[in-house]
Amino acid sequence: MDERLDVALIQTRTPATASAGLAHVEPLIREAAAGGAKLILTPEGTNVLEQRRGLRDAALSTEDADPAVLGLRALADELGVWLLIGSAIVRSDAPGDDRAANRSLLVDPTGAVVARYDKLHVFDVDLPGGETYRESASVRPGVGATVAETPWGRLGLSICYDVRFPHLYRALAKTGATMIAVPAAFTRPTGEAHWETLLRARAIETGAFVMAPAQGGAHEDGRQTWGRSTIVGPWGEIIAKADHDDPCVLPATLDLSAVQRARQAVPSLLHDRDFDWPQ
């Protein structure tokens, strides 16, 4: 296995329809591939960002009919790259549940979807600045974690708010993940306060590369997202970071042997102990 991997994170400001979302992200993915990236990751909500329920429901398709998903699968095939669609907001296939699925899709260089992950933790909050989010009202949480095989090692999948639940990341690492994706659309207040700290903590705890492509800026539905897409090494060091909210490509080369060195230096993944919970 090659111990060096050229990756690229795509930072976007996704529009409110899937066709517009594809048109927005496609040139950035082409730029990343032209720069030599073999694994390209996009943010949460790559196809559609629309929090107004009626407009969002009207914009959604099933995974197999979504224009952005289909277009991005064809693009991965054309460019011969691995592509993580950080998430696509698609119609859920759960009977009797009209909520959407917030779904990561790992696409191989033939355009095939080789792994799926539905966001486990949904974000319900009333922020001090007046912003309110009720993701649970419109998004059906997933039920299982996912670690996917790639030519460079195992890739653990997560989405945005998941980053606040360290036990998920420990489970991904203990199941062999040496890289973990955290595609996100973090709000500005929480992003400014917590984004980098959480990403570095998850990397340190797992001894894995953490790759976090983000949405950034003012969106059509009124939300404000933080941007600052970031790649963190397994020792907790920042390898690459966007210092703004604007759409961009963030390239980096990962030295995959750093995972083994970090885990040998601090072998905490081997030291779990059962304990009695406090009463």
Main attributes of the structure:
279 residues, alpha/beta, Nitrilase/N-carbamoyl-D-aminoacid amidohydrolase, six-stranded mixed beta sheet, 16 strands, 29% strand, hydrolase activity, acting on carbon-nitrogen (but not peptide) bonds, in linear amides, hydrolase, Putative amidohydrolase, Nit1/2_C-N_Hydrolase, C-N_Hydrolase
Structural write-up:
The chain is built from seven helices and 16 strands. It is of the alpha/beta class and 279 residues long. The protein has one domain (4-267): Nitrilase/N-carbamoyl-D-aminoacid amidohydrolase (4-Layer Sandwich). Helix 1 (18-34) packs parallel to helix 3. It is globular, with a radius of gyration of 18 Å. The termini are far apart. The model has no long low-confidence stretch (mean pLDDT 95). Belongs to the carbon-nitrogen hydrolase superfamily. NIT1/NIT2 family. Keywords: Hydrolase. GO terms for molecular function: hydrolase activity, acting on carbon-nitrogen (but not peptide) bonds, in linear amides.
* Global structural class: alpha/beta
Alpha carbon gyration radius? 18 Å
The proportion of residues in beta strands is 25-35%
Total count of helical runs of at least 4 residues: 7
SSE topology:
Elements: E1 4-11, H1 18-34, E2 39-41, H2 53-59, H3 67-79, E3 82-91, E4 100-107, E5 113-118, E6 124-126, E7 132-134, H4 135-138, E8 146-150, E9 153-157, H5 166-174, E10 177-181, H6 188-206, E11 209-212, E12 216-218, E13 224-226, E14 230-232, E15 238-241, E16 248-255, H7 257-265
Brief synopsis:
With 279 residues, this protein is α/β, with parallel strands linked by helices. It is 28% helix and 29% strand.
